[in-house]
Amino acid sequence: MTLPDRDFVAVALARFDALANYQVTLKSTSTGAETVEVRYAYRKPGFVRMDFIRPHGGATLTFNPESGKVKLWPFGIDTFPRLTLSPDNHMIQSPQGHRVDESDIGALLVNVRELQEHGDTQVVGAETIGTHQAAHVIVTCRPGEYVTGVFRYELWFDLSHGLPIKVVSEGESNEPIETVLMENLRIDVPDSQLRPFA
After folding, report:
1. Structure confidence by residue, pLDDT tens digits, 49-73
2. CA 120 to CA 128: how far, in whole Å?
3. CATH ID of 8-190, from 2.50.20.10, 1.10.645.10, 2.30.30.320, 3.90.70.10
């Protein structure tokens, strides 16, 4: 399969800018840490809902960009207790230091774009990820320059909607930091089908 000649990162950023919301199941693996699986929902201008499948199955976390606060229900939404936290609270950051208010695809793509500006981009070719045809792209930073501690991103952009469906981040010594699979991605979900964000 021949890939179109394009900047897949720029296309993905434009696609993200045009969408109103999305839902996806995220599976994150990293060395020495338990696999994290989350039903993730995002609505502009930055509302986030994360329903944890594992670990902490049943826990729900929401972020409201208007209040700047995170609400955490350890045992499921609308159950007691409910905690109100700042997004920089270490208790709710990932092992890689990801914050809920910077967890969306757009934030990832901004980091990738910044890395592109300080390095090289290679389009490897077309590959199949699950049932999706994807463009495999590698963005590598020049030595000594980092974006949020990442030296290299490998991304697979779905050729039908242009957004990433798999991302691998690595450090300067090619040590893996995190692998994220994005499954069942739905874009511009009708409001009636979106889980509530509060």
Report:
1. 999 999 889 999 999 999 999 999 9
2. 23
3. 2.50.20.10
